[in-house]
Write a structure and sequence with these properties.
Blueprint (H helix, E strand, L loop, with lengths): L11 E5 L4 H12 L3 E6 L5 H13 L5 E5 L5 H15 L4 E4 L14 H29 L2 E6 L12 H21 L4 E8 L5 H9 L3 H8 L12 H8 L10 E4 L8
Parallel strand pairs: 1-2, 1-4, 2-3, 4-5, 5-6, 6-7
Helix pairs in contact: 1-2, 1-8, 3-4, 4-5
């Protein structure tokens, strides 16, 4: 019987920002599909529980997971992260650029440091990570790069211009890398999450209590998304089922942007 086109057995995945939220849910999803999984995060606080969660998902597929501590804004640390994954797994087939940050505020009052920090983490780091894995993927004959952006790549916001600009940049970066690396059989795609219930959006709701009801009123699905809602599309984009899909944006927002 032929293997499922979504089967990731024997594939090695590296997920940045993998200790919590969307990154952790994607890591579990890839593990459940059979992948070897390296979860990388700059924050060591949740590393143990995250690794245990992903390792449990690996058990059914005789796969395994490792945890790495890395600051994706440090080029040296990124190279070390990639080298550690290659040393342990022998290959990198899938990169998920999930690490992200939000520092909101009106543009007229935003410190340049807040602008630069968000651009560094959300836009520059995915480029550096993609550069770092490219040689191994090319040598292997192909690979999958999945960038995590936001619906704010296409929708403006007056209170987080740095975040919106960074995610719009990720969308264009995805398209550019997809074109450049298509001859290397590397597919590069981007996921645009809508309003997902994570630590990041929890802080936003605490700062703006009216946000919860405003979002529910606009989302046709009538609920906030969960990190697990992103796992399925990530597995698709990581698998051979998406071998002819590249440079594409995949919105996961419960119909939020369809409302216009």
């Amino acid at each position: 019987m032929a293997a499922s086109p979504f089967d990731l057995t024997g594939k090695a995945a590296l997920i940045t920002g993998g200790n919590t939220g969307i990154g952790l849910a994607i890591a579990r999803g890839l593990a459940e599909a059979g992948a070897l999984v390296a979860i990388a995060d700059r924050n060591a606080d949740n590393a143990g529980s995250a690794l245990a969660s992903v390792a449990k998902a690996c058990e059914a597929n005789n796969s395994r997971a490792i945890s790495l501590i890395a600051d994706v804004t440090d080029t040296t640390a990124v190279v070390a992260m990639v080298d550690a994954t290659l040393k342990d797994f022998g290959r990198i087939d899938i990169l998920v650029n999930n690490a992200g940050i939000s520092l909101s505020g009106p543009p007229e009052k935003m410190p340049l440091e807040d602008w630069q920090t968000v651009i560094d983490v959300n836009l520059t780091a995915p480029f550096v990570c993609a550069q770092a894995v490219h040689p191994a993927m090319k040598r292997q004959g192909g690979g999958k790069i999945i960038n995590i952006a936001s619906v704010l790549a296409n929708l403006a916001t007056g209170n987080a211009p740095n975040y919106a600009a960074s995610k719009g940049g990720v969308l264009q970066l995805t398209r550019s890398l997809a074109i450049a690396w298509a001859p290397d059989n590397i597919q590069v795609n981007v996921i645009l999450p809508g309003w997902i219930d994570t630590d990041l959006t929890k802080r936003a709701r605490e700062a703006r209590p009216e946000l919860h009801d405003r979002i529910l009123a606009r989302v046709p699905a009538a609920r906030w998304g969960t990190p697990e809602d992103l796992a399925g599309v990530a597995v698709f984009l990581a698998s051979r089922a998406s071998d002819f899909v590249t440079g594409a944006a995949h919105t996961v927002d419960g119909g939020f942007t369809a409302m216009g």
